[in-house]
């Protein structure tokens, strides 16, 4: 059985990179054997790639729910745990409760959204990774894995599409 | 007689957008833009250090030493006393919270509205939010006197097994300001990650380590971008109501009381628009300064951006004038004796100059100047108008708080407030804001380069009839 090698192909523009993705598929490279690294966000629609699923919205909703419960506890729970009757006023009042619940719900929503990015992207991660600094200079890199015997065939194909460089993808300290 | 249209002697010249006029139509290679931003960040002249040193000295004397004096001697050395217990401390708190609204407005609201002109200066505005809120927090701590007892504000059962009462607007304020501070700091950080990664790729030494830690290992994979963009969209929508809630709750600190001049049902939106008035004017000032003082920034921040900010300032000024008059009219018409006396005191009392100054700075000056395109696009003019609006808005808060507290329903307590050590503390907080902004401008890419490039990719010229017009594609 042949060994699989990972390469990093660098493109200057979006269009040849998108063509390269299609051609890589034609050469038997499946979508999960590819990853696109870019200096600006390129949507799956632009790249013609499967949609990346994000857990951030679900985590945000979970955080909002937790915030809502905490807000309810602060506004209504505490006053019942430590009741302090003042001049016939109710222990739990509608309008202040709404304010507290709103603030805590929004805090929960936003904090969990922030944490969600860390969880989904596995941040922080300071391990060596396949990367070259030219990417943040606007180049688009396709990271792909192919069997060793297809290296030259795929290389020729990418060269015909105007690839700037193809390097063996080695992990570097960022 | 039937009038006939004379044929034109010559056809209209072909109208074409000048690419150099618009940043989005004047793209440069990303590597070049990165170098320009990094160069601007790392180039510091001796003047920068002189200014930073001077500001540091002001912070040391006016903020730290004066605060130490206030703590050692007690609040008696401040001018606050019956009936004006809040004084400049709360004027500054409200003012700085107002300044902080600009960042969210520019970054979130304009992002949601897809206002493309926002792209190069969103971060400059977002930084103002976080740093403005820090000054607001400091002002509250200054006012506490015994600041080491600040933990009494936290909801914990104290020795009397009583929990702080969340039914007070001041309790809501604590939660709202902290929610906003945390949310705006997170919202500042998220879009900063790709730019920190860019800075990491182009730095050496301690800066490399600094950016490596802060960029969290970001590379720009499809997954990382998707999670980041999803989070930024959620933030942009969710932080807007938080922004509105913060200054509305600050307004309720006053409006929930039954004092003359304060008991107003429109104080919430009036405060919010006041916050935007001072905040956007401050963004205009910062943008002009960044453009003038930082290397290469003239490429990113152009007259078109100053023009857009000038228009925003004018519109917000009109809305502020509407709310001011609405608030004034109802109170004046109401006929309450003490409210009438207070309104008269505002206009004809010893602080009347401030009341008229407020109207001149907030209404007359923007109305008379900002309708003019040439003035809006002139950096010095925009800076001056922004400065005057900020002076006017500070006056407004001063009139609402200490001046309005002078006249109440107990005439034997009437006494005009004269600030003492608060003046130094105010200068100190202002200097601290400028100082941390200056330091941040050398550490953080002030222009979100990836957002600018994204915008440039999306923009183009399209022929419509005989004209070539700017178009933008929906690539987000």
Features:
heterodimer; A: 174 residues; alpha+beta; Alpha-Beta Plaits; four-stranded antiparallel β-sheet; two-stranded antiparallel sheet; 5 helices; 17% strand; B: mainly alpha; Formate dehydrogenase/DMSO reductase fold; 2 strands
CATH topology of the largest domain in chain A: the name is Alpha-Beta Plaits
From the 3D structure, determine the CATH topology of chain B: Formate dehydrogenase/DMSO reductase fold
Q: Which CATH first-tier class of chain B would you pick?
A: Mainly Alpha
Order of helices and strands of chain A: EHEHHHEEHEE
Beta-strand share of residues of chain B:
under 5%
What is the terminal separation of chain B in angstroms? 58 Å
Total strands of chain B: 2
Structural class of chain A: alpha+beta
Instruction: Give the low-pLDDT segments of chain B.
Output: none
Sketch the major β-sheet of chain B.
2 strands, antiparallel
List the total number of helices of chain A.
5
- Average pLDDT confidence of chain B is 91
CATH class assignment of the largest domain in chain A: Alpha Beta
If classified by CATH, what would the architecture of the largest domain in chain A be?
A: 2-Layer Sandwich
Average pLDDT figure of chain A: 92
Q: Note poorly predicted spans of chain A.
A: none
Number of distinct helices of chain B? 17
Amino-to-carboxy terminus distance of chain A = 33 Å
């Amino acid at each position: 059985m042949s060994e699989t090698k990972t390469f990093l192909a660098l493109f200057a523009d979006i269009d040849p990179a998108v063509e390269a993705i299609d051609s890589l598929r034609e050469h038997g490279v499946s979508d999960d054997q590819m990853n696109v690294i870019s200096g600006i966000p390129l949507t799956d629609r632009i790249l013609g790639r499967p949609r990346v699923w994000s857990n951030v919205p679900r985590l945000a909703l979970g955080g909002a729910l937790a915030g809502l419960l905490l807000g309810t506890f602060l506004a209504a729970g505490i006053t019942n745990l430590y009741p302090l009757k003042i001049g016939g006023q109710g222990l739990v009042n509608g309008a202040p409760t709404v304010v507290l619940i709103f603030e805590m719900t929004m805090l929960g929503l936003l904090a969990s959204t922030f944490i969600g990015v860390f969880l989904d992207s596995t941040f922080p991660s300071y391990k060596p990774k396949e990367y070259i600094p030219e990417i943040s200079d606007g180049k688009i890199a396709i990271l792909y894995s192919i069997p060793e015997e297809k290296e030259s065939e795929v290389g020729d194909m990418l060269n015909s599409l105007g690839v700037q460089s193809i390097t063996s993808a080695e992990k570097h300290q960022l | 007689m039937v009038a006939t249209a004379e044929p034109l002697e010559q056809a209209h010249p072909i109208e074409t957008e000048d690419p150099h006029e618009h940043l989005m139509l004047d793209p440069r290679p990303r590597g070049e833009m990165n170098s320009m931003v990094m160069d601007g960040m790392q180039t510091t002249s001796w003047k920068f250090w002189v200014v930073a040193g001077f500001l540091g000295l002001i912070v040391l004397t006016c903020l730290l030493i004066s605060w130490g004096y206030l703590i050692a001697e007690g609040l008696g050395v401040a001018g606050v006393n019956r009936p004006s217990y809040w004084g400049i401390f709360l004027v500054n708190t409200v003012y700085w919270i107002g300044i902080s609204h600009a960042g969210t407005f520019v970054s979130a609201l304009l992002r949601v509205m897809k206002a493309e002109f926002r792209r190069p200066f969103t971060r400059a505005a977002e930084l103002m939010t976080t740093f403005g809120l820090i000054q607001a927090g400091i002002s509250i701590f200054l006012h506490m006197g015994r600041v080491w007892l600040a933990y009494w504000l936290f909801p914990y059962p104290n020795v009397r097994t009583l929990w702080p009462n969340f039914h007070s607007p001041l309790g809501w304020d604590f939660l709202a300001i902290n929610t906003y501070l945390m949310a705006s700091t997170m919202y500042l950080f998220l879009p900063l990650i790709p730019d920190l990664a860019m800075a990491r790729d182009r730095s050496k030494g301690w800066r490399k380590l600094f950016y490596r830690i802060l960029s969290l290992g970001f590379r720009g994979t499809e997954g990382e971008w998707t999670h980041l963009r999803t989070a930024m969209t959620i933030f942009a929508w969710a932080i807007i109501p938080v922004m509105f809630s913060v200054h509305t709750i600050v307004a309720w600190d006053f409006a929930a009381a039954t004092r003359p001049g304060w008991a107003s049902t429109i104080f919430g939106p009036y405060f919010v628009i006041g916050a935007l008035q001072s905040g956007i004017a401050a963004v205009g000032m910062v943008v002009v300064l960044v453009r003038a003082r930082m290397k290469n920034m003239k490429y990113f921040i152009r007259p078109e951006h100053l023009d857009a900010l000038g228009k925003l300032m004018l519109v917000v000024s009109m809305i502020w004038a509407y709310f001011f008059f609405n608030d004034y009219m109802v109170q004046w018409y109401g006929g309450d004796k003490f409210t009438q006396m207070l309104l008269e005191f505002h206009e004809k009392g010893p602080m009347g100059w401030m009341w008229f100054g407020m109207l001149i700075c907030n209404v007359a000056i923007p109305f008379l100047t900002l309708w003019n395109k040439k003035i809006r696009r002139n950096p010095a003019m925009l800076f001056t108008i922004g400065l005057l609006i900020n002076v006017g808005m500070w006056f407004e808060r001063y009139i609402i708080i200490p001046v309005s507290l002078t006249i109440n329903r107990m005439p034997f307590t009437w006494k005009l407030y004269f600030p003492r050590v608060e003046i130094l503390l105010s200068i100190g907080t202002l200097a601290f804001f400028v100082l941390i902004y200056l330091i941040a401008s050398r550490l953080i890419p002030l222009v979100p380069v990836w957002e600018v490039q994204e915008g440039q990719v999306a923009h183009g010229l399209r022929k419509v009839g005989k004209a070539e017009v700017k178009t933008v594609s929906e690539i987000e």
